């Protein structure tokens, strides 16, 4: 951090900082990692904030069921992970809606990508959000179950990021 401060990194934007790091760090992964850590440490970036897609969050749980069985639950019982009253057709272009209920905002969106048994990518727009976020669910088979990954990006702010982290952590705990 001191070396980057001394080199004037505090005045650089993200792209310039990565270019500066590229002079002494060969790996592009490490260049990005160091740049983000520096920006977070210096208050230029909040945890979970990206340079291009707003805020993002990920939640992962390994569940004691097969990937096949979990996919069947996800496909046949969307209310278990989307919320009560949810209707969902797992086809690209299909819209979905989760009705508003006491204490819970309504959500709407569109299915974008479906890879049966593996992944769903869709938009996620609760009431009151100006723009939709992107929600991706991924199932990764493990020796003793399935790793269920939930990733969201294009979240509007840090508050929404934390709310989604809590929401999806709870959903995954309930699916177990």
Strand content: 25-35%
The beta-strand count equals 6
Mean pLDDT score: 90
Rounded to the nearest angstrom, the radius of gyration is 19 Å
Count of helical stretches: 5
Termini Cα gap? 42 Å
Fraction of helical residues: 25-40%
Structural class: alpha+beta
Per the principal axes of the C-alpha atoms, what is the gross shape? elongated
Q: Spell the H/E element sequence.
A: HHHEHEEEEEH
- The largest beta-sheet arranges its strands as 1-6-5-4-3-2
Main sheet properties: 6 strands, antiparallel
Low-confidence spans:
none
Offer a concise description of the structure.
It contains five helices and six strands; from the N terminus they run H-H-H-E-H-E-E-E-E-E-H.
Core attributes:
176 residues; alpha+beta; 6-stranded antiparallel sheet; 5 helices; 32% helix
Structure overview:
- This protein has 176 residues and is of the alpha+beta class.
- 32% of the residues lie in helices and 29% in strands.
- Strands 1-6-5-4-3-2 form a six-stranded antiparallel sheet.
- Strand 4 (119-126) and strand 5 (133-142) form a beta hairpin.
- Helix 2 (14-22) packs across helix 3 (28-41).
- The radius of gyration is 19 Å and the shape is elongated.
- The N and C termini lie far apart (42 Å).
Give the topology, please.
Elements: H1 2-6, H2 14-22, H3 28-41, E1 55-63, H4 67-76, E2 95-98, E3 107-115, E4 119-126, E5 133-142, E6 145-155, H5 158-175
Antiparallel strand pairs: 1-6, 2-3, 3-4, 4-5, 5-6
